[in-house]
Structures are given as C-alpha cells and as structure tokens.
What does this fold into?
Amino acid sequence: MIRLLIGFLLGIALTLLIAFCYVRYGFVDPRADAEVGSLESKIAMPALDAAVDRRASDAKNPVQPTDENLTAGMNIYQQNCAECHGDIQRRQNPFGASFYPRAPQFLEDAPDMPENQNFYIIQHGVRLSGMPAWGPSLDDQKIWKLTTFLSHMGKLPPSVSAAWKTAASAPETGPPKDSGSKIQSKEKKSMELPTH
Ligand code: HEC
It folds into this structure.
C-alpha cells in the first residue's frame, strides 16, 4: 500500500517537473500570430468564463438603454475599443486578429455575457491577452454605459446607429468632433507627468 502511494506521488511530481521544464525551457510557442489550437480554445474560453462568473459581483446595471446613454456608450466604445473589436463600418478589424487570443469582433460575435460579467472584464481586463484593464482610465459610470451599449449593439435605435456610422467614418488621425475636452485633458495630464 505504502509503495503504491509513493509510486503515485512520484508520478505526480514527475508530471509537474515535465510541465515545468516544457514551459521554462522554451517549448511554448510565444508567437501571437500562431494559429489558436482548438484544444487550447476549448479549455481557455470556458476557463475564462468560469473565472469571471466566480468573481464578478452581481451588481445590477444602473444605466438605462436610452438613446442618450447608448450614444454616450457608443462614443466611448468608438474611441477606446473599436480598433480591436471592430465597428459598424469595419465589422472585421484586422488589428483584432493580430492578438493571441484573438480579439472577438463584436458585430460578428456578440458580447452576450451577463452585464455584470462584461462590466468585470472591461474593468479588470484579461491577463495574458491583449485586453487591457479599463478601470484606471474609465470610471464606473462610463463602464456601465459601455456595458449597456455592448448589450444593445445588435439592436440599436436608428438614431444611435446613424450617430455610430458618422463617428466610425471620422478620419482616424483627427480627434472626433465631440471629444475635444477629453483630448485636451489627456494632453494636460501627460504634460503634468514629468513635473511629479
Ligand atoms: C488592444 C486591443 C483591445 C482593446 C483596445 C480592447 N480589447 Fe477587449 N479584448 C481584447 C482581446 C484580445 C480579448 C480576448 C481575450 C480572451 O479571449 O482571453 C478581449 C476581450 C474582451 C471582452 C470579452 C469577450 C468575450 O466574449 O469573452 C470584452 C467584453 C471586451 N474585450 C470589451 C472591450 C471594451 C468595452 C473595450 C474598450 C473599452 C475593449 N475591449 C478594448 C483586446 C482589446
């Protein structure tokens, strides 16, 4: 019996050692443009969903899907997220496909997780992926507006869709028409940094 137990424990230790050496000595492919293996995505996606499900608070979204709130959410999305997740003019943004794991293209693959989970992912980001944590740069109210926008992306009122088309057509280099104050305050912040 003791021998069996020792054999079992040695087996586990050997497996862990092999896994450690595999990772530590460079057998894991580091390229972001490698093809995402089906086994990996079958394990990773449910693991991420389960981890978020376990951690996200069950706070209710305080932001109503009025035209005004949806337009506000759309503007925040267009400025911060469209580059990776696509928009009404570029449903498949090639930049989003340059990440590993790939950034989901929300007009093709709706962000249909419960709102408290979308809020959590936006606030905290996703470790070991290109998804940044937005908590440091967007306050809770803005993240809820984004969350409301994501939940309604596929069924936007015509006026919000029209505003989105205009926002998405704006030249990428110029600041969007209505965000002058935000850009200015960003510049101000970065100018203040060296003095600290
Ligand atoms: C630099 C690229 C990049 C930017 C900018 C970005 N994301 Fe992401 N996002 C990703 C990647 C990559 C993933 C996939 C992470 C994974 O599958 O592990 C992701 C995943 C997500 C998910 C989870 C989707 C799912 O089905 O699991 C949500 C929600 C999300 N992003 C929302 C946003 C929002 C909202 C913004 C803007 C505030 C944003 N992202 C900005 C790259 C980005």
Helices lie at 2-24, 38-55, 67-80, 82-85, 115-124, 140-152, 158-169, 180-192. The two ends are 66 Å apart (CA to CA). Residues 63-171 form a domain with the Cytochrome Bc1 Complex; Chain D, domain 2 fold (CATH 1.10.760.10).
